[in-house]
Input
Amino acid sequence: MRKKKERKPHLRINPLINKMQMNAARKQKPVVEQIDPSVDKKFLKKRMVMVVGYNGSKFKGTQKTKGVRTVDEELEIALDKTEMIHHRNKGDLSKIHFNRATRTDKKVHALQNIFSAKLLIDRTKSLKELCKEINKNLPEDLRLFTFRWTR
Output
């Protein structure tokens, strides 16, 4: 009786791509950051929905564009000032999963435009207090009406 040859499982991975990924992983240095345990317990990272209204006469649209005043940029600045965006995520809205229900062109007003983002929420404050804090950091032609949790 002949012995059956033991077969290795066949992997359908391109060896060149796999080698490139491994080399890239070796070059990356691990990020070591000290996190204060008291701060970690105080803040909760949660996806939030923001209902925003604005007078668009001084805005060049909703979507963030370099060198132009936009609604996304003003919201990001206000959220950063209220410390709801981690310093590593500042400047890149995709890192906080920032989304909007619609986009507007330049000089277009909106009564209720819905935005969502994954934000750092201070557990010691109510949602009304957080909403007031954000509005303090927003310009007069942009207002946050409601601030809610998502599921």
Notes: The CA atoms of residues 47 and 151 lie 8 Å apart. The radius of gyration is 23 Å.
